[in-house]
Amino acid sequence: MYYDELPIWGLIGRVENREETDDPKDYKYFLYKHIHFDILYNKDRVIEITARTDPHSVLDLTEDKEVNAEFTYTAKWKQTDIPSLLISSSIKFVSVINKLMTKS
């Protein structure tokens, strides 16, 4: 996900295997229903966004059936004095490195 050309990484769910076997029937699949965003901004520029999920707000998708889900989010805005150029330059640098590493 991106916001104003800033990447946002986060998990959308989890897989559990309590039996520690490779049999797919022993796996449980969960989807997170709530995401919390921490948004760091300097004046009128968003410079960083982190996403966290609530491990207690999950939907069990283990059974192969249709389910209805209500998704929610919260956002906390935090002002900073960090210049946006420093953050965006480092993000672009990491993006370039990631592209080079994955093209092998």
Automatic annotation (TrEMBL):
Topology with respect to the bilayer: Multi-pass membrane protein
Pfam families cross-referenced by the UniProt entry: EMP70 (PF02990)
GO biological process terms on file: protein localization to membrane
Superkingdom of origin organism: Eukaryota
A single cellular component GO annotation: endosome membrane
Keywords of the record: Endosome, Golgi apparatus, Membrane, Signal, Transmembrane, Transmembrane helix
Entry's localization field: Endosome membrane; Golgi apparatus membrane
Chief location bin: membrane
Family matches, as PANTHER family: TRANSMEMBRANE 9 SUPERFAMILY MEMBER, TRANSMEMBRANE 9 SUPERFAMILY PROTEIN
Similarity-based family: Belongs to the nonaspanin (TM9SF) (TC 9.A.2) family.
Annotated protein name in UniProt: Transmembrane 9 superfamily member
Gene from which this protein is expressed: TMN3_1
